[in-house]
């Protein structure tokens, strides 16, 4: 009889990588000066607007960065569609535009091609990746290493949250900030994982037989809602859809009923406050609401998972942690192995 290894224990890699995140955050902060140096070059170029290119979990990181850019930098920002370049051959003028490609692997051919094309068309290009020697890094002028270390589980956990923190540190430094709100993010992450553990375990039992889940949030937390839906779908094979709280009321709420589980991301701040009315409507439809975040106690919900409070613009870095634990627990409770979800690979290559 051979000893049991991480490779044979379902979810062992994902569990370890979730637990590693506080240390990853501390490591990123230790390298803030390198990120600030990249930010200084961006600030000198004075971009007129910012475009983010990404796929999968990284696309949710880009959505978060879009909010940061529009709110903290007061610059217009957008999410690009790489296929407009790779499939349709579009060649817009990108003079004085900042183009940020976000990719954990840096290996997706469409992102590489679109980024290389953007640079030729005048954009200042930046790669935010976990792979400093990736093809994406080789075609950009500047790069930020998220420093998460090798990730073995197929579902992104530490690379996702590290991407969020790296983007925050970059954008905060562009505006001349000193990242004071992130100074204790490692300790807060430790608390978020420890304090949420009993509630997550209870939530796993509560929702293990759910068939349909809606995830929702507003503002910065829209990115967390989108990532939550992806995590639940890819690890537990749940039918999960993400909506902003505003969009949920514009039609999709009609499909919410007593058979629907709603995962609501509600952290302290303007976004969380805007969710109160939304969740009152959803509760009136009979849905089972699980509120996650530092404002979970302030909204209508049947179940709550609290998260330590921080500046609103940093809340997605913390509020995703118990959601990852929930996805892991549900996958195992439903008989799956989140380290090896069916039909998925660590790097997805598209064009």
UniProtKB/TrEMBL annotation:
GO terms of molecular function: carbohydrate derivative binding; glutamine-fructose-6-phosphate transaminase (isomerizing) activity
Single GO BP term: carbohydrate derivative metabolic process
Keywords: Aminotransferase, Repeat, Transferase
Pfam families to which the protein is assigned, alphabetical: SIS (PF01380)
Record domain SIS: where: 38-180, 200-341
Record-linked Gene3D superfamilies: Glucose-6-phosphate isomerase like protein, domain 1 (3.40.50.10490)
The UniProt record lists the keyword Transferase: yes
Protein name per the record: Glucosamine--fructose-6-phosphate aminotransferase (Isomerizing)
Organism, as annotated: Crossiella cryophila
């Amino acid at each position: 009889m051979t000893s049991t290894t991480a490779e044979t224990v379902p979810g062992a890699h994902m569990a370890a990588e979730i637990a590693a995140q506080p240390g990853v955050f501390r490591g990123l902060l230790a390298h803030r000066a390198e990120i600030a140096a990249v930010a200084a070059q961006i600030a000198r170029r004075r971009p007129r607007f910012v475009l983010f290119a990404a796929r999968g979990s990284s696309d949710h990181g880009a959505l978060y960065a879009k909010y940061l850019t529009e709110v903290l930098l007061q610059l217009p920002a957008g999410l690009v569609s790489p296929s407009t370049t790779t499939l349709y051959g579009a060649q817009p003028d990108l003079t004085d535009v900042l183009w940020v490609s976000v990719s954990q692997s840096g290996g997706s051919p469409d992102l590489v091609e679109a980024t290389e094309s953007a640079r030729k068309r005048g954009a200042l290009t930046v790669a935010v990746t976990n792979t400093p020697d990736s093809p994406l890094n080789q075609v950009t002028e500047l790069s930020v290493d998220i420093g998460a270390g090798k990730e073995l589980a197929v579902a992104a956990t530490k690379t996702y949250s590290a991407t969020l923190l790296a983007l925050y540190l970059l954008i905060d430094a562009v505006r001349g900030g000193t990242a004071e709100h992130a100074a204790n993010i490692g300790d807060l992450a430790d608390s978020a994982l420890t304090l949420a553990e009993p509630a997550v375990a209870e939530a796993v039992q509560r929702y293990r037989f759910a068939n349909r889940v809606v995830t929702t949030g507003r503002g910065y937390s829209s990115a967390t809602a989108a990532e939550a839906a992806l995590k639940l779908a890819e690890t537990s094979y749940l039918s999960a859809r993400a909506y902003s709280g505003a969009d949920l009321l514009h039609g999709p709420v009609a499909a919410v009923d007593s058979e629907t589980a709603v995962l609501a991301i509600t952290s302290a701040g303007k976004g969380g406050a805007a969710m109160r009315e939304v969740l009152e409507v959803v509760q009136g439809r009979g849905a089972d609401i699980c509120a996650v975040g530092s404002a979970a106690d302030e909204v209508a919900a049947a179940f709550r998972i609290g998260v330590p409070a921080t500046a609103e613009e940093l809340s997605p870095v913390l509020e995703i942690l118990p959601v990852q634990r929930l996805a892991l627990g549900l996958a195992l409770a439903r008989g799956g192995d989140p380290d090896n979800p069916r039909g998925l690979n660590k790097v997805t290559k598209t064009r």
